[in-house]
Amino acid sequence: MPNLNLSGSLNILRLFVNPALCLPHHTVSSFDKIPVPLSEAFGTSKTDDKKPDIRAIVLDKDNCFAIPHQNEIFPANKAKFDELRQAYPGSRLLIVSNSSGTGADPGFKDAELLEQNTGVTVLRHTTKKPGCSGEIMDYFRSRPDSQVTKPEQVAIVGDRLFTDMMMANMMGAHSVWVRDGVVEDRNIVSALRSNISFIFFPKFDLPSYLSEKS
Question: pTM (2 decimals)?
Answer without folding.
Answer: 0.84
